[in-house]
Amino acid sequence: MPIPWPALVASLAAVMALMVGLWLVSLPLRNASIVDIFWGPGFVVAAAAAMAAVGSPWARGWLALALVMIWAARLAIHILLRNRGKGEDFRYRAWREGAGPRFAWVSLFQVFLLQGVLLWVISHPVQAAATRGGGLTWLDAMAVVAWAVGFIFEAVGDQQLVQFKAAPANRGRVLRTGLWAWSRHPNYFGDALQWWAFYLFALGVPGGWVTVYSPILMTILLLRVSGVGLLERKLVETKPGYRAYVRQVSAFIPWFPRRTKA
Q1: How many CB atoms lie under 10 A from the CB of residue 47?
Q2: Is 18:117 a contact under the CB 8 Å cutoff?
Q3: Residue 260, pLDDT score
Q4: N or C terminus: which one in the chain shows less Cβ crowding within 10 Å?
Q5: Cα–Cα distance measured from residue 240 to residue 171, given in angstroms and rounded to the nearest whole number
Q6: Cα-based distances in Å from 15 to 12, 144, 208, 230, 245
Q7: pLDDT (tens digit per residue) in 62-77
Q8: pLDDT beyond 90 at 5
Q9: What is the pLDDT, as a whole number, of residue 261?
Q10: CA 151-156-162 angle, 5° bins
Q11: For the residues of the chain, what is the DSSP string, one character each?
Q12: Burial grade of 210 (CB within 10 A; 0-12, 13-18, 19 or more)
């Protein structure tokens, strides 16, 4: 394993402490979706705890941590503003209704601790970069470029969607301009690309290549679990023009729109 065991233990303990604390806060609020706001900051906690455990002095680690912090801060603010005043997210609300009085304990394991474990596993490339030595290489330069492209797709895609939804005239319509003309989910594509960038950082340390499960897992989550798959099932049912949009525009990786017969 390219990550020292003290770093792995410290990062896991820090993430679990964060999740248990959030769970305790969620109980009086009756809102388990607060966990979403802290998804990004949780990666900062994991990386910082790993670095502190080994006293990391390496430039690669500080660079990776800085990029994680930028990604996490933007994502947390975006989710906070998006969810403000809306109460608990429909996904958690459905679980709450299904579990009844047991939801308090169910949410601890099914929501908070599960996300904590996923977060900790996905953070391994950043932990590897943060806790192992070695000078910066061309891989680190590629990582910065890939991260920047991903950040632009995620941040700009999110902002374009926020502005589109803010206009009452767009109610029930499909956003098909800007980055959304090239991908049906440019924000999720950008998120995934940033985690492949963090994997490039890990490739710069001995044995870092084994953490490839991290970007693969993040990409699967975005495509099949909490991102594209879940959202598209809802959009096909609620937006009449979405089926035509699906036929013409790439689901994930940006590409030229397809022409269809009228």
Answers
A1: 29
A2: no
A3: 62
A4: C
A5: 11
A6: 5, 26, 21, 26, 39
A7: 999 999 999 999 999 9
A8: yes
A9: 55
A10: 130
A11: --S-HHHHHHHHHHHHHHHHHHHHHHHHHT-TTHHHHTHHHHHHHHHHHHHHHHT---HHHHHHHHHHHHHHHHHHHHHHHHHTTS-S-HHHHHHHHHHGGGHHHHHIIIIIIHHHHHHHHHTHHHHHHHHS-----HHHHHHHHHHHHHHHHHHHHHHHHHHHHHSGGGTT----SGGGGT-S-HHHHHHHHHHHHHHHHHTTSTTGGGGGHHHHHHHHIIIIISSHHHHHHHHHHH-TTHHHHHHHS-SSS--PPPP---
A12: middle
Residue in 69, 55, 57, 209 with CA at minimum distance from that of residue 125: 209
Mean of pLDDT over the chain: 93
The per-residue pLDDT for 224 is: 85
Q: pLDDT tens-digit profile of 227-237? A: 787 788 888 88
Residue 69 C-beta-side C-alpha neighbours within 13 Å: 9
Question: Which one-letter amino acid corresponds to residue 206?
Answer: P
Rounded to 5 degrees, what angle do the CA atoms 216, 162, 83 make? 75
CA dist 39 and 37 (Å) reads: 6
Check: pTM over 0.90? Answer yes or no: yes
| Residue of 159 and 89 predicted with greater confidence | 159
Tokens of 14: 């820090």
Cβ neighbours of residue 70 closer than 8 Å, sequence gap 6 or more: 151
